[in-house]
Specification:
mainly alpha
Length: 59
């Protein structure tokens, strides 16, 4: 995983709703073994659908 992908996953882990954040954490820890293309699609889905994927309220 390249540095840009890692940074984007770290952003998702810290700002995403729980399902996105948990998935990003698992990818960063190596608990999920996804092909690069699938990770790119995951990141793209997060970046292009902020209404459904951002966690603006504190838990």
């Amino acid at each position: 995983m390249n540095d840009e992908t890692r940074q984007q996953l770290q952003l998702i882990a810290s700002t995403g709703t729980r399902p996105f954040a948990d998935t990003a954490d698992a990818l960063l820890r190596g608990e999920l073994d996804w092909p690069a293309k699938e990770i790119d699609q995951f990141i793209d889905g997060f970046m292009n659908d902020p209404y459904l994927t951002r966690n603006d309220s504190p838990e």
